[in-house]
Amino acid sequence: MQPYQEEYLINLRQFSALSQRERPGELTCGEYAARIMDNRARTIRLGRRNMELLRTGLFPVLDDLVAASQEELRELEEFSFQLYDGRTELDVGLFCQIHQALLSLARQKRDRSAMIRELYWLGMGRNSLVSKLVGLEMSDIEEYIARMRLCFTEAAAYLKYYHEVEDTETRGYILRARANMALGQFHAPGEKVALLKKTLNILQDKYYQEKAPSLPWERFIYLTHQNMTSSISHSREKVMTPDDMADIMESAYIVYQQRFDEAEMQGKQPPAKSAFAYYAIEYFCGLYDLETFLTKMEGLLDIADPTDYSWDGIYGMISLPAFYSQYLEQYPEKIPPRVEYVEHLYRRMLSYADSYPGDPGEGNLFLYLRQLSITFIETDGDVPYGEFLQRLLLRFAPEVYRHSRTVAEGVRSLCSVIMEDDPSFFDDVDFIRDICDQAEKRRAVLDYAMGCGLFHDVGKISVIELFSRTPRQWFEEEYEMARLHTLAGRILLEPRSSTSRYAPAALGHHTWYDGSRGYPSAYRRLDCAARQMVDVVGLIDWLETRTSSSRMYSDGPKSFEEAVEAAAQLEGRRFSPLLTARLRDHGVAEQVKDALKRGQQDACRRMYEDALQTMGREG
Ligand SMILES: [Fe+2]
Ligand SMILES: [Fe+2]
Predict the structure, then answer these.
(1) Same domain, yes or no: 470 and 413
(2) Would residue 11 count as lying in a domain?
(3) Most CB atoms within 10 A, among 311, 331, 372, 539?
(4) Distinct helix (H) and strand (E) counts, the chain
C-alpha cells in the first residue's frame, strides 16, 4: 500500500481508541476532565491530518482513475478492504467513495465483471451505512435505501447473462447481489418476501448451480432463508398476507431446525433469535393467541444468560426485551399486569450493559440498545425513559453527552436572565402558562430549559457513527444523513410522557429564526408553542459548538466573545433578536459563559464518576 494509505489506517485505529470512553485508572476527577479534552483535541488533529492525506494522496487518484496503473488500482482495492470488508467497519464512507470511483472506471472500460463486482461492494457499503440509521421513519431514509438497493438490483440484472459470464467469482457476485436486493427496509413485508422467494427459486435451480458448482450454494440458500425469517413484521401497521406467512414459516422452520440441531448436538439451548422468530411466525399463523405468545417470549427472556456477551447473549438480554416491548406497545391492554416484569427486564438489561466486559463503543451492544430505545415502554418505576437515554449518551456517546450537558447549563442561565425581566416570556407553553405562582413558574422554566438542553441532540444516537466514529470531515451524503438527528430526536422523545415536552427543542434547534435556512423542514417555528425555548437552545447550541473544540474542520475554536459577536451579526435571521439583544449586555454574556464552563465541568465529573463506578480503577 501507499504510505498515505498506511498512515490513514494507523490514524483510524488511533482515532477509534481515542473516541472510546476513557478509563479512570489512577486519575483524579480534574485530570480525567483534562484527559477527555485532550483526547478530543487529538481526535481533531487526527481528523485534520486524515483529510490532508486524502486531499493529497487519494482524491487526485480518484479523479483520474483512468490514468492509474494496475498496481495503483490493486493497492487502492487493498486499502478499501482494510476500511471495510463486509464485517469490520473502520471507514465505510470512504470505502463507498473508492468503490463509486472504481465502478465509474469499470463502466468506462465496459468491463462487465468489474462492474458487477463494484456494484456488489458499493451496495454492501451503502447497506452498512443505511443499517446504522436506527429508529427513523422509512420516509426519512428511503432515498438511502433506494441508492443501496439500486446497486444490488443492477448487478442482479446480469443474471440474464449468467451463461455468458465465464468466471465463477462474477457468477457468485450476481447471485449474492440478487439475494441482497432484499436487505434493508420495505414499505410492506410482502415486497421483501416476494423478492426472497424469487431468489430462493433461482438459488435452488439446477441450471444455475451446475454452471458454478464450486459456489457455496447451501450457504446461499440458508442465508436467504434466514433473511426470510427476518421478514416477519412485528408491527400492527405492516400486515403480512397469509401467503407471506406461509413462506416465512417455511424458512423459519428450516433455519430454526438447523440451529436447533446444532444446539442439541452441543447440549445447549437453541439461540433466542431463532426460537423467537419461530414463535412469532407460529403466532401470526394463528397457532396460538397473543397471550400465549407473550408467555412463550417470557420463557425465552427468563432463560437469557446475564453473563453471556456473545451475539446470542446480547440478543436475549437486549433485543428480545425490545421486541417484547414492541408487542406490548401495540397492545397496551397487555401492559398493566406486566409492569413489574418490564421494569425487571430493563433493570436487568442496564446492569448487563454496565458489566459489559468489552469496549462499550464497539460491537453490537450499542446498536441493540438503540433499538430498545425506540420500543422502550415507560412505566412509573425506577427506569424513567429520559434517564435511560442520558445513560446511553454518557456511556456510548461521551462527546454528545458533554456537549448536551454544557448546552443545558447555558440555556438554563439565559432563561434565568429572561425570566427575571419578563416572567411571561415562555407562556406560550401550556404547562408553564398554567402555573400562577411566580417562583414555581421560574423553577419550571429552568427545569424545562435544562431538559431541552440535555435532550436537544439525543437523536444523534440514531446516527452516532457519523458523529463519533467518522475520522475525517464528512462527505456530502454524510452531512445530509447527520441532519436526520433532529428528526430522530423527535421520534425518541415525543411518544413518552416524561420526555415529550423536549421534542420541539430536538426537532427545531437547527432551523433559522426567519425560516430561510436550516433544517429540518418538519419544524415550523410559528406553529410551535415552545418556539421561544427552541430559540434559546438553538443559540446556545451554536455558541457552544463554536467555542468548544468540537469543530473539527473550521479554523479552530473561537473565543466566547467572538462567537457572541458573530451571533449578533445573524440577528433576526439565524437568531431571535430578543435573545441576541440580551447577549449584548456584557454581564449577561459573562453569566452565560460561566454557565457553559460549569456545565462542561459538571459533565466531566459525571463521566468520571460513572466510569469509576462501572469500569473501576484498574486498566
Ligand atoms: Fe444538533
Ligand atoms: Fe447540539
Answers:
(1) yes
(2) no
(3) 539
(4) 30, 0
Task: Say how many domains are in the chain.
Answer: 4
Residues facing residue 571 across a β-bridge:
575
Together in a domain, 585 and 465: yes
The alpha carbon of 475 and the centre of ligand 2 are apart by a number of angstroms equal to: 20
Residues 283 and 298 in one domain: no
Give CA–CA dist 364/362, Å, rounded: 7
Are 249 and 278 in contact by the 8 Å Cβ rule? The answer is: no
Ligand 2 mean position, distance from CA 541 (Å)? 5
C-alpha cell of residue 158: 446480469
| Residue 244, in any domain of the structure | yes
- Mean pLDDT to the nearest integer, 453-481: 91
Rounded to an integer, what distance in angstroms lies between the CA atom of residue 397 and that of residue 470?
13
- Please give the distance, rounded to the nearest whole angstrom, from the Cα atom of residue 563 to the centre of ligand 2: 15
107/150 same-domain check:
yes
DSSP letter at 145 equals H
Confidence of residue 143 (pLDDT cuts 50, 70, 90): very high
Predicted TM-score of the model (pTM): 0.92
- Domain residues for 217? 212-287
Grid coordinates belonging to 196: 426472497
Please report which ligand is nearest the Cα atom of 519. Answer: 1
Residue 96 in grid coordinates: 463507498
* Nearest bound ligand to the CA of residue 489: 1
Could you tell me if 260 and 324 lie in one domain? no
